[in-house]
Input
Amino acid sequence: MLFIINRNACLNKSYQIFKSKIEPLLKEKKVSFEYVTTETVAEAINCARNSVKKHREVIACGGDGTVNAVGTGLLSAGTLEEGQVVMGALPIGSSNNFALQTLKIPRHPQEALKVLLEGKKLSIDVGKTGEHFFFNVFGIGVGGEVADVGQRQWPFCRLPNIWFRYKLPALAIALRGISTFDVDVKTDKGDAFSGTLIFANTYNGKGEGKYLPLNENGSASDGVLNMVLIEDISLAKYVARPSIPIVIRKLRKRGKAHFFPASKIQVKIKNSSRGEFPFAYIDGELFKLEKNTFSIEILPKALSVISG
Output
């Protein structure tokens, strides 16, 4: 078992958490393990890619961004067969939606380790756009703006707290004016949209954690992506309301929110109020769009994981 620890996760406390709470239990249970620490996404990807030669279980220690890096490394190794290498997640990052909501891993480190050692193995779908994989969400628009404020402009917003990570940046964006973009969307199921949006997110599973559960019947193993489009509205409704799903249901009734289940989606961005590409993010981390036309697809049951 290999633990890949993102040293920057949990306000740089991830390594300390592993050494004080996880390593002693591993030794007590006589588990054969190794660990490596990483500082960058590229390091985590390379560690995971190289791990398939030696390890059958690879654990991402950090948040959603760390899970994405480790999963990307495993998938890009090119030698994976179903069940050959299994990925797990120790949720000690700023945002842990994938580990907590999709994999059902407990937040408490010791309880999480119990699941990683005794949990069930299952195969999950993986989203892909271009050469980039996503396990939870690929978002364009306001979610990317929130990530830009929280990660690049105000680093203190990386605290694992909904107000710091989401609502405070959203308030700042609402005050300065939210960006919009014109888009054409077509899916392989026959759905289509053309118009102005503030939000275009594609989810693998139920949604984006407990604060944005958009599809209660969704699963990361159902072979379907769920795209959610929201037209130009006041962002204040996102920030002020305690329940975002209630807001989105009301928007859907008004024809301002659109839900498209699909296996493959074609997107063309025609214009952005930013004067360039709109903000974007993958699994909680900023992502730079480089083309105005691209596809989003699902890779069914592409990765084996440990689940609670």
Remarks:
- The first helix runs from residue 9 to 12.
- The chain is about 35% helix and 35% strand.
- The first strand starts at residue 2 and ends at 6.
- The domain at 2-118 is CATH 3.40.50.10330 (Rossmann fold).
